[in-house]
Amino acid sequence: MKLKHITHVFFDLDHTLWDFDKNSALTFEKIFELNQLSIHLQDFITVYEPINLKYWQLYRNEQIDKTNLRFGRLNDAFNALGIELEPERIHKLAHDYITYLATFNHLFEDTISILQYLKENYNLHIITNGFKEVQHQKLENSGILSYFQTVTNSEMVGVKKPNPKIFEHALHSAQAKTQNSIMIGDNLEADVYGALHVGLDAIFFNYRNENIQQEIKEVKNLSALKKYL
Questions:
Q1: Which of 17, 186, 208, 226 has the most CB atoms in a 10 Å sphere around its CB?
Q2: Can you spell out the DSSP letters for 52-99?
């Protein structure tokens, strides 16, 4: 079912092209070693990941700021594991995490090949809620920055997906129209429903195999985008 009206394709970055979970785990491994913390990595990741998702939801909803997100997700994870650390040490770990995160740049399978394929016929763009100081580094260090004509960051706009203003800003920057554009991302609330609310089409990157409404377009791997584009 090719979508022949599409000329502009907007991608989320983390968890869609850039393999956040894998790169994040490698970053924690590095900063635990640098800070001489003897913590079993997989035990920490198992506890941390759902806490991180909770904090990002609060951040998207403007209920916490960036500093509280960075500190709170680590503090809660250490507390859940029964590890007592002074706040100053947690703040340093939070700083080190951001410093080293973009030094690991694993991409999802087929990222490069699908971007090369799409670049032939579409204008490609990024809309991301990630922190501005690391998102550009992720794009550049992973070798995919050149595929995108525009990059819209939530900190640049002052709001986060699914707020309509970030999509409107991205469309304006790209000189694109809603009826000719599509959003691709892994988060139903932020990427899919956010895009649909402002009139963009959307494809859910459902790599986690979530149960979703049948009317939502979805792919479970990036190469499957060729079914639509």
A1: 17
A2: HHHHHHHHHTTSS-HHHHHHHHHHHHHHHTT----HHHHHHHHHHHHH
CB 93, CB 81: distance < 8 Å: no
Burial profile 130-159: b = 16 or more Cβ within 10 angstroms, e = fewer:
bbeebbbbbbeebebeebbbbbbbbeebeb
Residues whose CB falls within 8 Å of the CB of residue 2, separated by 6 or more in sequence, listed in order: 227, 228, 229
Coil vs helix vs strand at 122: coil
pLDDT at 84 > cutoff 80 = yes
Q: What is the pLDDT of residues 130-180, one digit of tens each?
A: 888 899 999 999 999 999 999 999 999 999 999 999 999 999 999 999 999
List domains and CATH numbers for the chain.
8-18+107-227 (3.40.50.1000), 20-101 (1.10.150.240)
Q: What is the CA angle 200-205-211, rounded to 5?
A: 105
- Tell me how far CA of residue 78 lies from CA of 26, 50, 100, 175, in angstroms: 18, 13, 20, 45
Q: Which whole-number Å values give the CA distances from 109 to 3, 106, 220, 223, 224, in the listed order? A: 23, 9, 11, 8, 11
Which element (helix H / strand E) includes 113?
helix 111-119
